[in-house]
Amino acid sequence: MSEGKKMTSSRRHHLKSLMLQIAANWIEQEKKDITAAKEAYMAENCPTPDLGGDLAALQEICKKLATAIDQVDDARYDAEAKVQKSDKEIEDLKLKVVDLAGVKKPALKKVRMSADAMLQALLGGKHKVTMDLRANLKQVKKEVKEEGAEAGDWRKNIEDKADRKKMFETS
């Protein structure tokens, strides 16, 4: 088709329905092929048993079937063991890849939380712990200096600093 001409909606609908019919026919044919393949496999590998015999013949057939079932179970068990071993190896290799690549730690977010809230989160809601850090601080009195009159006397200023040093040493 050229770029200028467009397909009408009825034509498009008709072509779509034809494609769906063809696909449905293919699916039906595929199902028939699968059932025919199953029947052919069963006829080849599992011939119909001859049940028209005496008790000893039937017991012999049952023994043959039991041995065949045991062989199939052994093969299935071996296959499952191989699959489990392979799965374990795959998991180990995945862990090694993660170890080699290194786990990237996400950037931590800043959380504003008081000390009381932190303790309550750590210890649980049952424990009532208050942690007032300001109550344990020592009270320090500030001395107001009269700078205007004593600004020129440097000896007085040194004595004030010595008194302040003594105040911190005694406490």
Structure overview:
It is built from five helices and no strands. The protein is mainly α and 171 residues long. The termini are far apart.
Entry keywords:
single chain, about 170 residues, mainly alpha, about 65% helix, elongated
Order of helices and strands: HHHHH
Span between termini: 100 Å
Q: What Rg do the Cα atoms give?
A: 46 Å
Main beta-sheet strand count, sense and barrel state: none
* Category by helix and strand content: mainly alpha
Count up the helices. Answer: 5
Q: Secondary structure elements and their pairing?
A:
Elements: H1 9-45, H2 55-101, H3 115-123, H4 147-150, H5 154-170
Short description:
With 171 residues, the protein is mainly alpha-helical.
